[in-house]
Write a structure and sequence with these properties.
The structure is a single chain. The protein is of the alpha+beta class and 439 residues long. It has two domains: 237 residues, no CATH class; 135 residues, Protein Transport Mog1p, Chain A, CATH 3.40.1000. It has nine helices and 19 strands. The chain has an eight-stranded antiparallel sheet with strand order 1-9-10-11-12-8-7-5. Strands 13-14-15-19-18-17-16 form a seven-stranded antiparallel sheet, sandwiched between helices. Strands 2-3 form a two-stranded antiparallel ribbon. Helix 1 crosses helix 5. The two termini are 38 Å apart.
Length: 439
């Protein structure tokens, strides 16, 4: 058994999963396909980063995202998805909204739409209880219907919020891959993460992390997500508190082990319920000729260019990214510093929002440059965030940022980023970015 795994040098987490899978006649094999994992940052995660950050630039918006946010929102509370639509990339259909614990699971009338299933919540509860260890469950309102359910579980060691969500991943061939891909720890903190396949071809990811990336509350968020070959998602979350946010910590860890979480999402009993979820609606045809999509960058061109343009004297401690986004963690001997870049075509429509205020200059060739120095959004203590944002008249945008820490959610490791504002500006304006192949 092999797996994409982080921070488990003795293999206990992966061994536990492997043992459980073998005991059920399955194999948790490595997804060794290089197109899914590149430089430590999975393609699905890169797409998620790109969609979220197309307007703000770089992975800036991820500073305050915990496990619940990075995986398309909490299973327990609707509307908590950190994913945002952008003018650069259309939003991929996300799993349908999920109810707050204690709700009926029925969406408000203005959110009813094709693609929603009317699965009796009592049936979801039955499968949930049948595939978890013995304990006391509390659900409020099992008379309704929906695709998700939250409850409180107690095995005698403390109450814990638990949620389960069933959905379709989306229409595209890669839909849902970002949900079963371990995130990059430069942006999302977690203790352990394993991803792989089971015997029927379904993909599985199990991650042990935190509700808050800066750990301002000791709420742990452990999650397992299964993506079936036919495009369904089974998403389970558990916490070491009876509510997701702001609750009293009732136990050291959430109640279910990695093995038990994996077995829960892989349970065959979900399949009949998943089949009740109707296909996603087809987008209506638009009259006239559809506008041509802007070019998109694929591969490692942005990452390679960023590394080539770094000033001399820097050691690269970590790197990642694919397509339009890339990052490096560098060290000049004075502490680690995260540097990242987004390269985007077709951003002219956002020019007014991006360059309408602040320290903005216009170069003779029409390129606009905005330099920003500010505190980290929601990162660690003492973090500063420096940015050089540039755009041509045609809407080709390059935004380069640097932090005085190796990860935004961790405390500052140095007084200032390893790159100066002038160096960030020079990198962002380099003509090599426009030479990266795009289609």
């Amino acid at each position: 058994m092999s797996q994409h795994e982080h921070h488990d040098p003795e293999g206990g987490f992966a061994d536990e999963l492997g043992s459980a899978l073998r005991s059920t006649g399955e194999s948790f094999g490595l997804d060794g396909r290089p197109e899914l994992v590149s430089g430590g940052l999975a393609r699905g995660r890169r797409r998620l980063l790109r969609r979220r950050l197309a307007v703000t630039g770089g992975a800036l918006a991820l500073a305050g995202i915990g496990i619940g946010g990075v995986y398309a929102g909490s299973v327990l509370t609707p509307g908590k998805s950190a994913e945002k639509a952008s003018v650069a990339a259309p939003r991929t259909p996300a799993p349908t909204a999920t109810p707050t614990p204690g709700s009926t699971g029925e969406p408000a009338s203005d959110s009813l739409k094709p693609g929603m299933a009317e699965i009796p919540l009592s049936q979801i509860a039955d499968v949930l209880k049948a595939n978890t260890p013995a304990g006391q469950w509390r659900f409020d309102g099992l008379d309704g219907t929906g695709q998700a359910l939250g409850g409180v579980y107690d095995d005698g060691r403390g109450e814990a919020a638990v949620g389960i969500s069933l959905s379709r991943a989306g229409r595209g061939p890669d839909a849902g891959l970002d949900m079963v891909t371990c995130p990059e720890q430069a942006y999302v903190p977690y203790d352990r993460c394993v991803e792989g396949r089971i015997a029927d071809g379904s993909r599985v990811m199990v991650i042990e992390g935190y509700e808050y990336p800066d750990k301002r509350e000791e709420t742990k968020s452990w999650r397992a997500v299964l993506l079936t070959k036919d495009g369904f998602l089974v998403d389970a979350s558990e916490y070491n508190a009876p509510i997701e946010k702001g609750g009293t910590i009732t136990r050291e860890d959430p109640p279910f082990t990695a093995t038990q979480l994996k077995k829960l999402v892989a349970a065959e009993a979900w399949r009949p319920l998943l089949r009740q979820i109707p296909p996603l609606p087809t987008a209506p045809a638009q009259p006239g000729k559809a506008p041509k999509a802007p070019p998109r960058i694929a591969g490692n061109g942005v990452q390679n260019t960023l590394r080539a343009l770094l000033p001399k004297g820097l050691t690269v401690a970590d790197k990642g990214g694919e397509g339009e986004f890339a990052f490096v963690v560098v060290d000049d001997g004075k502490g680690k510093s995260l540097v990242q870049v987004n390269v985007q075509y077709g951003m002219g429509g956002a020019s007014g929002d991006l360059f309408g205020s602040g320290d903005v200059t216009t170069l003779p060739d029409g390129r606009r440059v905005k330099l920003t120095q500010q505190p980290g959004e929601k990162g660690g203590e003492g973090v500063v965030w420096w940015t050089a944002d540039t755009m041509t008249r045609a809407g080709f945008r390059v935004v380069v940022s640097a932090f005085n820490t190796g990860a935004q959610h961790e405390a500052a490791t140095r007084a200032e980023p390893a790159l100066t504002m002038e160096q960030l500006k020079t990198i962002a304006l380099d003509p090599k970015w426009a030479k990266i192949p795009a289609k």
